[in-house]
Automatic annotation (TrEMBL):
It comes from Nesterenkonia halotolerans. The keyword Cell membrane applies. It comes from the Bacteria. Belongs to the CDP-glycerol glycerophosphotransferase family. This is CDP-ribitol ribitolphosphotransferase. Keywords: Cell membrane, Membrane, Teichoic acid biosynthesis, Transferase. Coiled coil: none annotated. Its EC number is 2.7.8.14. Its main location: membrane. It is a peripheral membrane protein. Gene3D superfamilies: 3.40.50.11820, 3.40.50.12580. It is found in: Cell membrane.
Length: 380
């Protein structure tokens, strides 16, 4: 009954919001850019680099960063703030689905860019996941105009661009080869070294032995197998860092020398100390390849995940590393891995930010500047 009434309730709320927003659009446009993020804990490296680029290229513009929360009774006040800034800004960038961005009718000259929050897509999302257990019901997706109103969508590779066009439900030409700011972040060797030093100050034990980082995908309503992996890891042979998803409530073991990577460091920061990454369907795959970090894949619940969400690529043909069938095999493989060659993978999945053959560029591609330029902001 509640699910059936949801689309109607959303339609009523949308009608009211559009009426209020129509009045807000009569206000003067200001020299400001609005960045709206779904990141609940800290401003991402992507948004920090976009802020720096905006201040450097458009010093006359203010930059407003808004943390967007999910729909709830307490959201109304925050929604009005988001609507006001959208109505009066010169440009907007988002990293996820943002309710007022998609449901409202904006000025025709307002550029809205979607940078997403992942460098690529292994798992399905957006319209590709609609109707599945971990996706929205099609009627709800239509009611909230999921992923509408973008002027452009950023992609880092041709394979990913094709996936994004389907996931966002847009024509292919709307997906632009702009990359993501985190590409600049990851390819900055000096910055990576500085981040490594900061982490080692907090965790000096990581300076000794091989450091394996486990980055599992979030599973809605399902537990992650942290305990199984921790039990298979011998602390005498290296260090194990676990990076749970912010929304994951699975208990994470604090024994056997396991480090839980929460606090002041983001997932991209932890890559600076990683010798190997173990993952399953996470987009950390793409980031790791830009740092030439060996990858091991442990898709322990593949059958379930294919039904619950689905994958956006041919997993066994595309993932750039060995695939383990048990926690013990994942650990032993990770501890034995040394060098790897990602040129073939990058030439397909990250070719907008690397050389055509997949080799890493000698100069930083400055993706943040590309994205800021795409907003076509008015000069002061």
């Amino acid at each position: 009954m509640i699910k059936a009434a949801l689309p109607h309730a959303l339609s009523v709320l949308t009608f009211g919001a559009r009426a209020i927003y129509a009045g807000m659009k009569l206000l003067p446009v200001q020299k400001k850019v609005v960045l709206i993020t779904r990141e609940p804990r800290q401003i991402s490296a992507d948004f920090k680099l976009l802020q720096e680029s905006l201040k450097r290229k458009h010093p006359g513009h203010r930059v407003i960063v808004i943390k967007h929360n999910k729909l709830s009774p307490s959201y109304i006040g925050r929604a009005l703030r988001e609507m006001y800034h959208l109505a009066t800004c010169d440009g907007c960038l988002v990293d996820g689905y943002i309710i007022p961005v998609s449901i409202l009718n904006h000025r025709k000259d307002l550029k809205i860019g979607q940078i997403w929050h992942a460098l690529g897509a292994i798992k399905k999302f957006g319209h590709l996941a609609s109707g599945r257990r971990e996706g929205l019901a099609p009627r709800v997706a239509n009611s909230i105009r999921m992923h509408e109103n973008y002027s452009f969508i950023c992609a880092s590779g041709s394979y990913t661009a094709a996936t994004y066009a389907e996931a966002f439900g847009v024509p292919p030409e709307m997906v632009q080869p702009l990359g993501m700011p985190r590409v600049d972040y990851l390819l900055d060797d000096a910055g990576s070294a500085a981040r490594r030093d900061r982490i080692l100050q907090h965790h000096p034990q990581l300076a000794h032995g091989k450091t394996v980082i486990y980055v599992p995908t979030f599973r809605r309503g399902q537990q992650v197998s942290y305990l199984e992996l921790a039990a298979a890891f011998d602390g005498d042979l290296g260090n194990l860092v676990m990076l749970p998803h912010p929304a994951d409530r699975t208990p994470v073991p604090e024994s056997n020398g396991v480090i839980i990577g929460t606090g002041d460091f983001g997932i991209l920061d932890w890559l600076s100390v990683a010798d190997v990454v173990i993952t399953d369907y996470s987009a950390i795959t793409y980031e790791a390849t830009l740092r030439d970090i060996p990858l091991v894949f442990w898709p322990y619940d593949m059958d379930y995940y294919l039904k619950a969400r689905g994958l956006a690529l041919d997993y066994f043909a595309e993932v750039p590393g060995p695939i383990a069938t048990s926690a013990a095999e994942a650990v032993s493989t990770a501890l034995a891995l040394e060098d790897t060659d990602y040129n073939e993978f990058r030439s397909r999945h990250l070719d907008f930010v690397t050389n055509p053959d997949g080799s890493l560029p000698e100069e930083n591609p400055r993706c943040a500047d590309r994205i800021v330029d795409a907003l076509q902001l008015k000069q002061v």
